[in-house]
Structures are given as C-alpha cells and as structure tokens.
Design brief:
Blueprint: E1 7-10, E2 13-20, E3 25-29, H1 42-45, E4 50-54, H2 71-88
C-alpha cells in the first residue's frame, strides 16, 4: 500500500500540508519555527469548513533551503498553495 504524503512544490520548496473538510477555507498558519500546532482545533473546524494547515518552509516536513527566509517568501508560499487548491478544485 502506497501512502501519499501531501506536498506542494513551488520553485525550490516543497511544503507539507493537510487539507480537511469542505466549504469555506480556513488557513491555519503556525508561528515561525514551529510545526503545525492545530491538532486539537482541526477536528472541530473541519466539520464546518475546509481547514488547510501547513509546515512553513524550514520547519517540520517541509523543505529547508539553505538561505535566509523572508516574510515575503512565507506569504508567497501560502499564496501559491491556495492558488493550487482553488485552481484545481
């Protein structure tokens, strides 16, 4: 059995994410330097909306490019992940 791990690749970064539920999107973004810390909130919210959470670049299961990160890079990562979901939906 092959288990598909949800990654989104954009430029030189692969972002690990989860997407659960249906409806209006709710994006849960962890603080810098932390993995997803939403384990207790996701079960509640996924019953009411689509919940998207991710590991930021450099954290958890996401890529760790060897250069300084900027806030603009984090914003671009999330923007492109959301475009991926809603263009493919």
């Amino acid at each position: 059995m092959v288990v598909k791990i949800p990654f989104f690749k954009h430029k030189d970064v692969e972002l690990f994410y989860t997407k659960e539920g249906k409806g209006e999107p709710l994006v849960l973004i962890s603080g810098l330097g932390t993995k997803m810390s939403w384990d207790f909130q996701i079960p509640f919210f996924k019953e009411k909306m689509m919940v998207i959470s991710l590991h930021n670049r450099g954290v958890g299961k996401s890529s760790r490019p060897n250069y300084p990160y900027t806030m603009d890079m984090f914003v671009d990562d999330i923007k492109n992940l959301l475009e991926h979901f809603f263009i493919l939906s």
